[in-house]
Amino acid sequence: MKNEHVWHSNESLLERLKLGDLDAFNVIYERYWSVLVNESFKRLNNMALCEEVVQDVFIDLWQQRAVRDIQNLEAYLRTCMKFKVFEVYKKNRRTKSMLEENLSLMQKNEISEYDQYAEKDLKSLIEEWIAHLPQKRKEIFKMRYLDEFSTKEISEMTESSQNTIQNHLGISIAKLRKLIIQHFLVFILTLFY
Q1: Radius of gyration of the chain (CA)
Q2: Residues 152, 153, 156, 159: is their CA dihedral positive or negative?
Q3: Taking the mean position of all CA atoms in its chain, how far away is CA 70?
Q4: Domain with CATH 1.10.10.10 in the chain
Q5: Where in the chain is the domain with CATH 1.10.1740.10?
């Protein structure tokens, strides 16, 4: 029994992990998965995103097992999780900023005559995409980007938390960005072939 406790100590698990012991990795995973998900949920308030962040932490732990000199396993995992959460914040902020810049460009009519066809095509693509959004996400997206309400105002009008509103917008923007990139890749390929 005492020997089993030694095998399950963080120090022993780290030693075995460095050697590529999958059982040690699984023990670490089971020990810290829910702790990290709960901690990241306090910051992101989106369970799917939290699970993705924590999964990335464990993938990095396994891939870097031989080169990292980890002294305190829990502190290391929590720090990795915080960096991953920060990356999510940074990515969401950058995506939101890019979408707002593009929408602003269209509203100011700074698009040349040559690009009017592309603008029309893009608008119809976005309108069609909006039409297929789930009802709540559609309402939130329209309120934010067409009616120009702040997330706080939308939160009050829909009686939802501001984090919920931001999560809906983040998901929408990520999917819209992917759609636009795919659309324009096809458009560019048709120009050259």
Answers
A1: 23
A2: negative
A3: 27
A4: 111-192
A5: 2-86
The answer to whether 169 and 96 have CB atoms below 8 angstroms apart is: yes
Per the listing, tokens 């020997």 go with: 3
DSSP, residue by residue, 114-136: GGHHHHHHHHHHHHHHHHTS-HH
Q: Give the SS3 label for residue 13.
A: helix
Helix (H) or strand (E) holding 105, with range, is helix 73-107
pTM: 0.47
Q: What is the pLDDT of residues 57-97, one digit of tens each?
A: 999 899 988 888 888 999 899 988 888 888 887 777 765 65
- Report which residue type is found at 134: P
Which CATH number among 1.10.3720.10, 2.30.30.240, 3.40.1190.20, 1.10.10.10 corresponds to the domain 111-192?
1.10.10.10
Q: Rounded distance, CA 150 to CA 127, Å?
A: 21
User: Which among 145, 147, 137, 143 has a CA at the least distance from the CA of 171?
Assistant: 137
> Scanning the structure block, which residue is given the tokens 């902020």?
93
Phi-psi region of 78 (alpha: psi -120 to 50; beta: other; left: phi over 0): alpha
**Distance from the first to the final alpha carbon of the chain:** 70
Residues 2-86, CATH architecture: Orthogonal Bundle (1.10)
> By C-alpha distance, which of 156, 125, 159, 127 is closest to 142?
127
